[in-house]
């Protein structure tokens, strides 16, 4: 006889399951925790991601500064944020902490990224083709008043709705 056909007193107890916050929710919690630490050290938080890669959960914090980021900056930030994150304990499972710089080619995901990277060369990858192409490369103008991404492509201004963009990143030509 299945559990659903039994009286409530005869059913096996359900295992209590702790509600799990999504990776995005954890990333936003961690961003709120570490932003004051980064500010104090002279860094800005570029991105915070909480992802599963293979068997590992990774908390990836990307920092930037006007002077750029060195390995020493990453180490300094690691030592500063570890106790803050540990005290708040926003992550249930074991994870690896990575602190890095955005690099010369970086994804643009937040409104402030578009302002900081205006004038830089970008590659826009779309979910569906526009005028026969899913990939557009040009110079980022920024966000227009409606929040669309404006890019100058071959001398012409193109705008792309954010919801249509699969990925947009800066492109460095060697």
CATH C-level class of the largest domain: Alpha Beta
What can be said about the biggest beta sheet?
A: 5 strands, antiparallel
How far is the N terminus from the C terminus?
Answer: 69 Å
- What percentage of amino acids are in beta strands? 35-45%
**Count of all domains:** 2
- The percentage helix is 10-25%
- The string of secondary-structure elements, in order, is HEEHEHEEEEE
Count, helices: 3
Radius of gyration: 22 Å
Spatial strand arrangement across the major sheet = 7-6-5-4-8
Which structural class best describes the helix and strand composition?
alpha+beta
Shape from CA axes?
globular
Can you name the CATH architecture of the largest domain? 2-Layer Sandwich
- Contiguous uncertain segments of 5+ residues: 1-6, 11-20
Name the CATH superfamily classification of the largest domain. RimP-like superfamily, N-terminal
The CATH topology of the largest domain turns out to be GMP Synthetase, Chain A, domain 3
What structural keywords apply?
five-stranded antiparallel sheet; single chain; GMP Synthetase, Chain A, domain 3; three-stranded mixed sheet; about 25% helix; SH3 type barrels; 3 helices; alpha+beta; globular
């Amino acid at each position: 006889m299945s559990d659903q056909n039994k009286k409530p007193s005869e059913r096996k107890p359900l295992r209590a399951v702790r509600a799990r916050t999504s990776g995005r929710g954890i990333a936003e919690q961690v961003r709120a925790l570490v932003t004051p630490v980064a500010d104090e050290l002279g860094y800005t938080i570029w991105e915070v991601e909480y992802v599963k890669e293979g068997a590992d959960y990774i908390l990836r914090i990307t920092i930037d500064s006007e002077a750029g980021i060195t390995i020493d900056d990453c180490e300094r930030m690691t030592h500063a944020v570890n106790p803050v994150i540990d005290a708040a304990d926003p992550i249930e499972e074991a994870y690896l902490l990575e602190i890095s710089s955005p690099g010369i080619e970086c994804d643009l995901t937040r409104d402030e990224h578009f302002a900081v990277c205006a004038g830089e060369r970008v590659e826009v990858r779309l979910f569906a083709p526009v005028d026969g192409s899913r990939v557009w490369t040009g110079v980022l103008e920024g966000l227009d008043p409606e929040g669309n991404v404006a890019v100058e492509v071959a001398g012409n201004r193109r705008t792309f709705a954010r919801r249509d963009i699969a990925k947009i990143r800066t492109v460095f030509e060697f």
